[in-house]
Specification:
Layout: E1 5-12, H1 18-31, H2 36-56, E2 61-68, E3 72-78, H3 91-104, E4 107-110, E5 114-120
Antiparallel strand pairs: 1-2, 2-3, 3-5, 4-5
Helix pairs in contact: 1-2, 2-3
Length: 122
């Protein structure tokens, strides 16, 4: 895998596809020579971002862009909601998911599109 590649993944907005997303994420991170622990962290964060979309946003698909750089992996997940209303059924679960992402990734930015998560290669 070469630096400066971007990989796009669109899957139907269904829980069944989270494992496919985790597997794809794992493959990309593995090819970039991330450590086992970092690969696990990145998989957890991508899954949490996707669960956020599934639980909190009524969209037909989950859209992910993986930006492969020489020193880092930037993952953009569309439609992730940062400000979770406490009136929603799964608001605590959603907030916990965002806390997990912020603690495991090196950089987390929320954009109008969704979330941008960066993990640097040690």
């Amino acid at each position: 895998m070469m630096a400066n590649d971007t990989i796009f993944l669109d899957v139907p907005s269904k829980p069944d596809y989270i494992s496919l997303i985790r597997l794809t994420t794992s493959g990309i991170a593995h090819n970039m020579r991330f450590s086992i622990d970092d690969i696990e962290d990145v998989k957890v964060c991508v899954a949490e971002a996707c669960v956020n979309v599934l639980n909190l946003n009524n969209v037909d698909k989950i859209s992910i862009a993986y930006e492969v750089r020489e020193d880092r992996l930037v993952i953009k997940v569309k439609d992730v909601i940062e400000n979770i209303s406490s009136e929603l059924d799964r608001s605590e679960e959603g907030e916990l998911g965002l806390l997990i992402i912020k603690s495991l990734m090196d950089e987390v930015i929320f954009t109008k599109e969704g979330i941008e998560m960066t993990k640097y290669i040690e």
